[in-house]
Write the C-alpha cells for this entry.
Amino acid sequence: MESIIGRKKEQKELGQIYNSNKAEFVVVYGRRRVGKTYLVREYFQDRLDFYHTALSPIELEDENLVEKQLQAFYHSLKRYGADVEKKPADWFEAFEMFITLLESKGKDKRLVVFIDELPWMDTPRSGFITAFEHFWNGWAAGQRHIMLIVCGSATSWISDKLLQNKGGLYGRTTYEMHLSPFTLGECEEYMKSEGIIMDRYEQLQCYMAMGGIPYYLSYINKGESLTQNIDRLFFDKKGKLRGEFDRLYASLFTTPEKYIKIIKLLSQKREGYTREEIAKETGLPYGGGLTKMLRALESSDFIMPYVYYNHSVREVYYKLTDLYTLFYLYFIDKKNAGPNYWKNNLMSPVLNAWRGFAFEEVCFVHREKIKQALGIAAVQAEISPWRSKLAEGDRAQIDMLIDRADRVVNVCEMKYSTDDYTIDKKYDAELRRKLDVFANETKCRKALHTTLVTTYGLTKNEYSGRIQNVITMDSLFD
C-alpha cells in the first residue's frame, strides 16, 4: 500500500468495506488509464483470493469472442486452484466452476474476488450478464465472507448494467467508487516518487496537456525537459499519446464515433452547449440515447454539466473538461503539427490561447482548493460561471462565481501568466463593467469580492486595489 500515490479516501473506504463482515459487491469505475486496477491490486496485494482480467475486444478478432473470454476465465480458475479439466461450455457453467472454487477456500476468512474490465466479458449473445446475475443473487450475496470487486472503464456499460440496472442486478451493488484523475497535488507527489524534477509552473503545464492521468505521467522521461517530453509524446509520429485518442474512446464506448462527435463539438466553445444544441449540431437524436451518452461522458470525467448563475435550472450546459482530449483536439487532430512543434512555438498566440482555456478548466477541477485558499472550505457555496442575458454587444461574462451562504460572492477571474499578472487600464475598465452588469442584471445583494486566480501573483499598481483576493497556482497544489 505504500506504493499507492494519493487515493487516501479510496483506501480508507476499501479498508472499511473489507472489514464490514457482510457480502460486498463493489464497483470501481472511471476513465481509462486512471488507475483503477492499480489501486485494487496494490491495496490488497497478497490478500486477493481470485483475480481475473477480461480480454480486450479491441485486440480480438470478431469471431469466437465468447469462446476466447471463456478460455481466459478458465485459465484464471486453474491458476487459483480450480480442479477443472476443460473449458466451460457457457457462462452458467463457468460461474458454477467459480462457486466450487470459492467454496473450496472455506469461510473462515474474508475472500477478496477481483474481476477487472467486467464489461469486456459481456460479448454479444453470450448470456454473460444473466449468468453473472445468477452468480451474485443465487450464491454470492448470501456469503458474508465474500467481497466481490469489479472494475470497468466502459462507464456506459457500468451505468446501464450495474448502477442503473432495472433487472436482476437492480440495487444489488453495495458500494460504488468513482475514481477520478489525480489532482495537481497528487501529480506532484507522483513526480517526486519517480525522481522527475519540475517546478510547479512546469507541472501545471504538464497537467494542462495530460490531465491527472497516472498512466500518461508514467511516460514522462525524467532525463528530458517538459518541452522535450511533450514533443516526444504528442508530436512524434509514433508518440505514445498521439495515438491514444482513438484507443481511448474505442475502449470506453461501443459506438465511439457518436461520443467523439459530441466531444469535438464541445471543444469548439469554452462554455459548451446545451443538450438541444448538441442534438442539433451533431445530428444525434434528442432523447434518452443522448442523455445516456452525456451521462457516460460525465462519469468518465470527460465533460461537466453546469447551469449559469441566476439562469433556469433546466438550462444545463455541457463543457469539455478532459484536458488530454482538449490538448489533442487543439493541436493534433487533423493538423499538420510536426516534430519539435512545441519547442518551436512556445510563445506563439495559439499556445497562449490554449493555456488560457486549459488553465480555466484546471481551476474548475480544483474549485474546492480555491475555496480552501479563501478560508471558506466549510462554508456552503454554489460554484458556477455567469453570463448576462443582454444583447451580444452588451453582454458580460464571469469565469467563476462562488456564491456563499455567508452572503458573499467571490467573483473569480482566471488568468494564466508567465509572471505576476498586471492589471492595465483596459482590463480595469472591463472588470468594472462586468461587476456593474452583474449587479444590475442579477439584483445580487450579497457583497462582491473580486478574486484573481493566477499562476504567480498580482503586480501592485494603481489598478490592483480592486482585487480583494489573490490565489496562486501553489494553492491549487496544496
